[in-house]
Please model this.
Amino acid sequence: MSDATETADLREDFVREMVRKDLRDGTYSRVQTRFPPEPNGYLHIGHAKAITLDFDLASEFDGTCNLRFDDTNPDTEDTAFVDGIIEDLTWLGFTPSGDPLYASDYFEQLYAWAESMIERGLAYVDDQDAETISAQRGGYGQPGIESPFRTRSSDENLDLFRRMRAGEFGEGTRVLRAKIDMQHENMQLRDPVMYRIRHEHHHRTGDRWHIYPTYDWAHGQSDAIEGVTHSLCTLEFDSHRALYDWYLEQLPLPHERPRQTEFARLELTHTVTSKRRLAGLVADGVVDGWDDPRMPTLRGLRRRGYPAAAIREFCSYIGVARTNSRHQIELLESFVRTHLNRVAPRRMAVLDPIRLVITNWPEGLVDHVEVVNNPEDPADGTRMVPFSGELFIERDDFMLDPPPKYFRLTPGREVRLRAAYFVTCTHADTDADGQPITVFATYDPATRGGNAPDGRKVKSTMHWVSAAHAVDGRAMLYDRLFSAEVPGDRTGDPLDDLNPRSRQVLDNCRFEPALADCPHGEVVQFERLGYFAHDTREPQLFHRTVGLRDEWARIAGRT
Ligand code: ATP
Ligand code: MG
Model:
């Protein structure tokens, strides 16, 4: 057993078991993985699972993990996505071994290998269009039909392939195909396409190329060039594995031959994790951009206030398996809540304010009361919060004519204002419709700090802010972007399940003064309301990250 296996984390899953066996048997003497995003969108929560697996596996076995952009498709790729992916990966807490790598850096090598395949009679230029080629592929139990161009001479193939590269032919007029077996039971091996003609500008190679390799022709070879040992990808590539191996068997490789292993995608309820779908939501204006806090992108979750550590912990917790499954989004949220409960400072914010006037408060007096910052973290200390005779409280913390079991403020009722005083409501002013506009109360000076010396109890404790000291701002509350657990399950189109009320904007919020100094991106707990992240751009805009109630405990039957 090598040192690497002895020191490795003994987490059990089929991937780690396989790697341990590989090292024990000497199949590989080291571990090298890669994370291979296509730069045609930003990373989402599903990618976080792949990233956590690729990077953790490498580090557990003292190996390396590189970041490789799978940039073989010139139409949809963009350097903004490249930069964004690097930024998101760094935020998530992972550092690739070495500089980012690009499949496009191997175009020349791939091309040389393609020529050698042609010379050895293993590839040919097909002049048929995509539709014909696809129709001839046949299907399971249905024979394939050989292309009339399959028997071209190597010389003719080589000449045509060089002219394809030189840009002599129109898009779609020719392709290079591997010559494998048109009757193979795995459709992927029925003479797959290796190159297509594309007269497109590429984000790195510019206008140099007129042919671009397919995913299959590029991926395994890129792994091999880099010295990857364990190439992990999602289950939909299962049927591509035979082709991955076949290509590598034909080529002289600089390192050991890499091996592809598939694992289940991460899917979440109420969520879509497909870059194409997510790009559609952005393009159609359903959300405000890739970093809209309702998006399951890493930049959306980050803006929403999800701690990177909570996402990593979630990914480790769900583990890797070989069967696809959909996890409850409440489970992810519960990781977020547990993390934030430990670290988020508590603050007071009134999101839908109504004025509370304390009629026996000494004119002009401002009292500063001491409030604990985080009961879960005594080291976070306390702060002084100004209290005065005019406050704001939450509109729904007061009712003129409450139903039974309403324990908050109502005429005649005494409640605690958090860390300040007991107050007793006397009456309220109302508008023409009978709706309260100002609430009046008296306070008991003996209850300073929030406790009565005579030991009398109150049934509720409410948050508040002093009107004269309050900071104005906005808050956004979020609900699921898709109301169905499996978006698109009913009709096939996730857009049919869009929740029209996924965002509620509150423009008239009042925050305690400490929130004026809250750094952008910081997450705090608004007492009784949930965790909120200070927007990364707009001052005094707070996004609700998650509520306070553990929905997961309910779902898991723990309450
Ligand atoms: P999408 O379907 O969102 O376009 P993709 O697979 O085309 O995803 P890539 O950029 O090619 O996106 O993915 C990079 C890596 O992330 C691949 O190894 C892929 O298998 C993995 N990956 C993508 N989506 C998920 C997911 N939902 N769960 C786990 N891994 C994923
Ligand atoms: Mg892909």
Observations:
- Confidence is low (pLDDT under 50) at residues 1-9.
- Residues 530 and 549 are 8 Å apart (CA to CA).
- The chain has three domains: 14-263, 275-345+473-555, 353-372+387-463.
- The domain at 275-345+473-555 is CATH 2.40.240.10 (Ribosomal Protein L25; Chain P).
